[in-house]
Amino acid sequence: MDGFQAYGAGKAGGAFDPLTFIRQPQTVMRVLCWLFSIVILGCVANEGYVNRPEEVEEFCIFNRNQNACNYAVAMGTLSFLCCAGFLALDVYFPQISGVKDRKKAVMADIGVSALWSLIWFIGFCFLANQWQFSKSEDNPLNEGADAARATIVFSFFSIFTWALQGLLGVYRFKMGADAVTFNQDYVDPNQQEPVEPPPTEE
Question: Is this structure's pTM higher than 0.90?
Answer without folding.
Answer: no
